[in-house]
Design brief:
The complex is a heterodimer of chains A (602) and B (190).
Chain A: H1 3-31, H2 39-53, H3 63-87, H4 103-114, H5 124-127, H6 130-160, H7 170-196, E1 206-219, E2 237-247, H8 252-261, H9 282-306, H10 310-337, H11 340-345, E3 347-348, H12 370-381, H13 396-407, H14 418-438, E4 443-444, E5 447-448, H15 451-477, H16 479-482, H17 490-504, H18 519-549, H19 565-600
Helix pairs in contact in A: 1-7, 1-9, 3-4, 3-6, 3-18, 4-18, 6-7, 6-8, 6-18, 7-8, 7-9, 8-9, 9-10, 9-12, 10-12, 10-13, 10-19, 12-13, 13-17, 13-19, 14-15, 14-19, 15-17, 15-18, 17-18, 17-19
Chain B: H1 2-34, H2 36-39, E1 43-46, E2 49-53, H3 93-109, E3 117-118, E4 132-134, H4 135-140, H5 142-149, H6 153-162, E5 164-165, E6 176-178, H7 179-188
Antiparallel strand pairs in B: 1-2, 4-6, 5-6
Classes of the chains: A mainly alpha (602), B mainly alpha (190).
């Protein structure tokens, strides 16, 4: 890894921590029901909203009501996003006259955005009306992030409280996180992005009259618009030319801002954050890097503040930082090394003052290798899934790193809320393992960890590997699954493994060569996303309820300290061990084989 | 259940209007007031009509122009209506064939060029709309463009150097040249 890459990583972490610390203070106060500063003026409005909706602001819920409210709220989201896509043809804000989306794709996209996955089987600029983008997708970018945050706040309350059956009010948590945290951050970030060149308008697509005429071939169509096949069975191609370029428009910056801050990752355009209208400059890219990690990092500090011991938050954050920085080093080195076959042909992949060099297939000139590798690790450490590069064209090791980061369960920063609640479950597992080793009843933050918590922990840790491995096995065994593969050999297996890894862990990025907009993949990834999200959330709320009801034990000489380097190492070891045990065989069949093929020249 | 449904429906409706209409429309109003040029696509106009966007690459193939990166959009290169990359893996034969074809084409067009070919000139960008190329890629094409335009090499070199976009804060991103802006500047040279 080169010096500029190290400097950029250092700058990124420094700015991140400087921003996350004050934000954590704000989040803590908001989620504990305070109305700091200007929010005092909004308090009456908030009260009015609750009265309209029939919500008793001060009435807290047990974990079961909390879970039911959350599920009903999210199911409404699925229905709304599905309905908007199916009806967009007759609804307003549709200057390009986009037709209704197919039922299976609408189903997939609805689940995808509600579960904070933002897997996209469609290309935005060719599929979605502005209304669907705003009132369907942007809304879920907010609400899915707020849902994740609500769950982690409920879990933290479980640790912080004692002898109580209540974990908070879901309606109040979601409303306050959306209105007082996500909205103001998004508005400021959206304007910063616009200043850099991200578009924000409601205009129809513009037509540019280009400098040169472009010659190309396109299939000959019959009167019904179907391609005509020649005698050889292949489509007949016609020589065509154009001197026009369609420039897509739309309310992009507003969606881009919450896409990053909410760790959603669903692009307005097909090329996502590689598209110059979504991510025009190295500075906009750096701001997007920060936006992805900002809330997940701040939530670690919120955890420390709410349990009354800031060192606990630092310990969790330290474990995340170590795994993250290691991944950046491996990713950057792999992509800077490039592809030996290209050098053999006489292509210059050497980094110099004149070029980024390295593996530039599927990457953008303004980002080169360093910025792209950093973004790639950030977006897959967090469950964001936005991309500045086409991950399908990464080198084998360059593709293994993001795959494995997702397979760790999206706990290295992870999604808004979901990253920290996933990591806290691993912390419970870590103290359990440590307790077994020394023969003591495990406890974490003064709460005894017993059979019930361990059962729930086992469910949350095992649900995603089961989904990923079983669904991958099905997809590579049936024709409908194999039909989607774009690249042959080991890489084709990696495409399918990546797809289900991304879906079940709610990341949303893809090895996009895979033709995933088919009924088979739309339904299978839909299942993975839904259960990967809610089969974790419900047991975690159960843990929250159970912990909240327990008494707090006093610290004594036999208590394992959970704020020091020993615990950080134990936590990292637990995360890596579980990930490796689950996935090493699958990874060996995909990226590992491909790496061996690449370096041996086959 | 009914006790849950009412708050769920009303809260969902109100938060949807707030985040799905009020927020994007307010952002649009502010963006249009503060940064109208950027908010509308950084368009370049000439004689009253749009000839492109500073941020979106165009296809160039004539000898008198600098060429951008290969674009994998369909059905034509640099189709801004349908962004995307090739998604070809590094060990896929189709990828190696595509690079080989790009290499052959470049070498044929630059018979006097002895330098190795910069990697960005033979690999497709992620968006298919990359507006920029590396400095190495621009310098690689100097002789061909100078020859086609009958322009002194030193003068063309200077023009390219005038169009270099450096790293932000000396650290972020890569030094590069915007192909459309460079070519428009070339056409403007008397």
């Amino acid at each position: 890894m080169s010096t500029p890459a190290i400097l950029q990583l250092g700058l990124f972490l420094l700015v991140l921590l400087v921003l996350a610390w004050p934000l954590s203070s704000w989040i803590t106060r908001i989620m504990q029901g305070e109305n700091p500063g200007p929010l005092r003026l909004l308090a009456p409005l908030e009260k009015l909203l609750y009265r309209l909706a029939g919500i008793r602001q001060d009435e807290e819920m047990g974990w079961k009501s909390y879970a039911v409210s959350l599920l009903v709220f999210n199911l409404l989201g699925v229905l709304a996003v599905y309905g908007l896509q199916r009806l967009q043809g007759v609804l307003p804000f549709n200057p390009q006259a986009m037709a209704a989306v197919t039922p299976d794709s609408s189903f997939n996209t609805a689940i995808s955005f509600v579960t904070n996955t933002n897997w996209q089987g469609y290309g935005g600029e060719t599929t979605m009306s502005y209304l669907t983008q705003m009132l369907g997708l942007t809304v879920q970018n907010f609400l899915s992030a707020a849902t994740g945050a609500a769950v982690v706040i409920a879990l933290i309350r479980g640790f912080a409280r004692h002898s109580s059956a209540r974990i908070g009010n879901f309606w109040v948590d979601v409303t306050r996180f959306t209105a007082y945290i996500l909205l103001p951050l998004s508005l400021v970030f959206a304007l910063a992005l616009t200043q850099q060149g991200v578009i924000q308008n409601l205009l129809p697509y513009q037509t540019a009259h280009t400098v040169e005429v472009t010659h190309f071939q396109q299939p000959k169509l019959d009167a019904k618009g179907n391609p005509v096949n020649g005698k050889d069975g292949k489509p007949v191609m016609l020589d065509s030319q154009t001197q026009q370029q369609t420039l897509p428009m739309g309310p992009v910056a507003s969606q881009e801002a919450i896409k990053m801050l909410g760790t959603n990752g669903g692009g307005f355009f097909n090329a996502n954050s590689a598209h110059p209208y979504e991510n025009p400059t190295p500075l906009s890219n750096f701001l997007q890097d920060l936006a992805i990690f900002l809330i997940p990092a701040a939530l670690c500090f919120v955890f420390g503040r709410m349990v009354g011991d800031r060192r606990q938050g630092w310990a969790i954050l330290a474990a995340m930082l170590v795994m993250f920085a290691t991944a950046v080093v491996v990713e950057t080195s792999a992509e800077q090394a490039g592809v030996p076959q290209l050098s053999a042909m006489g292509v210059d992949q050497q980094a110099s003052s004149l070029q980024a060099g390295g593996n530039m297939e599927g990457k953008e000139s303004r980002f080169g290798i360093i910025d792209t590798a950093l973004f790639t690790v950030i977006t897959t450490s967090a469950s964001c899934g936005a991309v500045t590069a086409m991950h399908d064209s990464l080198t084998p090791i360059g593709g293994l790193v993001p795959t494995f980061l997702m397979q760790l369960g999206e706990v290295v920063f992870g999604g808004v809320g979901s990253g920290l609640y996933g990591m806290l479950v691993f912390a419970i597992l870590a103290v359990f393992i440590a307790g077994l080793m020394v023969g003591r009843t495990p406890e974490y933050l003064g709460k005894k960890i017993e059979t019930y918590e361990m059962k729930m922990t086992a469910i949350t840790i095992l649900v995603t590997p089961i989904l990923v491995l079983v669904l991958t096995a099905i997809a590579v065994s049936v024709d409908a699954g194999k039909a989607g593969i774009a690249n042959p050999g080991a890489h084709g297996f990696s495409e399918i493994l990546y797809a289900f890894t991304s879906a079940a862990n709610n990341n949303g990025s893809a090895f996009a060569g895979l033709s995933a907009n088919t009924p088979f993949y739309n339904i299978m990834t839909g299942i993975a996303m839904f259960f990967g999200r809610f089969l974790m959330i419900v047991p975690i709320l159960a843990i929250a309820g159970s912990l909240s009801a327990k008494k707090r034990l006093a610290v004594n000489s036999g208590t394992l300290p959970t704020h020091g380097p020993l615990f950080v190492v134990l936590l990292i070891g637990t995360v890596l061990l579980v990930g490796a045990l689950n996935y090493v065989p699958a990874l060996a069949l995909g990226p590992v084989v491909e790496q061996l093929q690449m370096v041996s020249g086959h | 259940m009914l006790k849950t449904l009412r708050p769920a429906l009303l809260l969902f409706a109100i938060l949807s209007l707030l985040t799905g209409l009020a927020y994007p429309l307010l952002t649009t109003a502010l963006a249009q007031a503060l940064f109208p040029q950027q908010a509308n696509g950084s368009l370049i106009e000439k004689d009253g009509r749009i000839i492109g966007s500073r941020l979106i690459g165009q296809n160039f193939s004539a000898d008198k122009y600098f060429w951008g990166r290969p674009s994998a959009t369909s059905p034509m290169a640099y189709n801004a209506g349908n962004s995307g990359g090739s998604n070809l893996g590094p060990t896929n034969k189709a990828q190696l064939d595509a690079v080989k074809a790009n290499l052959d084409h470049l070498r044929q067009a630059h018979p006097t060029q002895t330098a190795t070919v910069p990697v960005d000139l033979v690999t497709a960008s992620a968006s298919g709309l990359d507006p920029e190329i590396s400095l190495a890629a621009a310098y690689y094409q100097l002789e061909r463009v100078a020859h086609a335009r009958g322009m002194p090499l030193a003068r063309l070199h200077q023009l390219v150097d005038d169009h270099i976009i450096g790293e932000t804060f000396g650290l972020l991103g890569e030094p590069r040249v915007n192909v459309l802006e460079l070519n428009l500047a070339l056409d403007a040279v008397k």
